[in-house]
Amino acid sequence: DGVTEVLAHRSDSLRDKFVEIPCSEDYDSHRRFEGCTPRRCGRGVSDAIITREEAERIRRIAERGLSLGGSDGGASILDLHSGALSLGKHFVNLYRYFGDKIHDIFTEEDFALYRDVRQRIQQRIAQVFGISSSSMYLTKPTFFSRMNSTEAKTTHDEYWHPHVDKVTYGSFDYTSLLYLSDYTQDFGGGRFVFLDADSNKTVEPRAGRVSFFTSGSENLHRVEKVHWGTRFAITISFTCNPEHSIGDPVL
């Protein structure tokens, strides 16, 4: 793995930490949107956007939704936008599968909090990268993840491979992660790792911490395997292309 530096320790309380990195050429093979497509690239971490209490409330939304299903392997997802929910070795549409019972699981307040948190993260990303928040759009997949040490049963469970979001999902321009549990307290392993040419830079999750970055090859990354406990997070993704935009989920 070479040299590993910690970009954000779990014990840190970071107002705003930002590291600028030269942009990759990935954006050149996609349509550019002036005032949004990254010209300034990098990665940031902030513990000042979402409170720990809000993160705990959001985690309870994830826990309730994922209790309806869950992967046979170590990685389960819940996408409130599309309704995708891990179930065994497959996915089901939560809204079709459970129908009206969904109102017993989620409340309007849950979805209002989800929207509010998304807006705050979007505004902070826009501010840091010097773009207008109205020029970026929520895109898919935006989803909750629950990871534990259960052995992978399908390729969907193999979350630890290095990847580039812009390559995996062409629509992504800015990626963010909101952590909903604490490294070393709720789980072991599971750190987020940026794979740079000279060294690895890790982010240790803590509830309420937001990590965000431009989605191109300048931010090649992976997640370490979770060794024990359960790691909750939500990936919230943004595009500059309005054709790839999705709306906030509604109950």
From TrEMBL:
Domain of life where this protein originates: Eukaryota
Entry cofactors: L-ascorbate
Keyword entries, A-Z: Dioxygenase, Iron, Metal-binding, Oxidoreductase
GO molecular function terms attached to this record: dioxygenase activity; iron ion binding; L-ascorbic acid binding; oxidoreductase activity, acting on paired donors, with incorporation or reduction of molecular oxygen
Pfam families on file: 2OG-FeII_Oxy_3
Database matches in InterPro entries: OGFOD3, Oxoglu/Fe-dep_dioxygenase_dom, Pro_4_hyd_alph, Pro_4_hyd_alph_FE2OG_OXY
The keyword Oxidoreductase is annotated on this UniProt entry: yes
One GO location term (cellular component): membrane
Record-annotated Fe2OG dioxygenase domain positions: 140-242
The protein's name: OGFD3 protein
Organism: Oxyruncus cristatus
Gene behind the chain: Ogfod3
